[in-house]
Amino acid sequence: MDQPRPLRLSSLRQKIACGVLTCLLIVLCGPQAHAQSSQTIESDDPQVQTSGTWTVQQAGAASNGSYRYSSGAEADVLTLQFSGPAIEVLYVAGPSLGTMAIEVDGTVLRTVITTADQTAYGQSARVDYLSNEPHTLRVYAQEGGIVAVDAFIIPTPS
Q: Which end of the chain has fewer CB within 10 Å, C or N?
């Protein structure tokens, strides 16, 4: 009795199968399945304008080793001019922190509760439904609380 032989694809058939799988991935994931590039602007970068009192705090776990935190005064505002349809705010969450407002072009689009049981770096809030033009971002604590802002990430077209 003959033993069944394992199915072997010829080299040409293997290449065709790989090509079909590649095409399928492109259809399912899109031609730009690679990660989108972005620009990171640290909260203590000169492009970020400060109003009120913000303190730079060194922290190894923060983006580029530091972040800014507000004093709790209503005048504490970080302002950044940027262009594009999206922006992401990296922040620190922690026990003594409050609610952060993310305002774009004069309208609060997101509020984020940054209070947490333990300090957590690398938290993010993203606004990605903007028109693809210049915008003014303002970040501040609501009701005079304290917030800690690490950096801003602006996606760049690929």
A: N
Name the residue among 88, 85, 112, 89 with its Cα closest to residue 101.
Answer: 112
CB 100, CB 140: distance < 8 Å:
yes
Please name every residue paired with 61 in a beta bridge, in sequence order, or none if there are none. none
In this prediction the pTM is 0.77
Tens digits of per-residue pLDDT, 108-137?
A: 999 999 999 999 999 999 999 999 999 999
Give the Cβ contact number of residue 91 at 10 Å: 26
Please say whether the dihedral angle defined by the alpha carbons of residues 132, 138, 143 and 148, taken in this order, is positive or negative: positive
Cα distance between residue 149 and residue 29, in whole Å: 33
Token pair belonging to 95: 């026990």
CB atoms within 10 A of CB 59: 14
The DSSP output letter for 28 is H
Check if the beta carbon of residue 125 is closer than 8 Å to that of residue 90: no
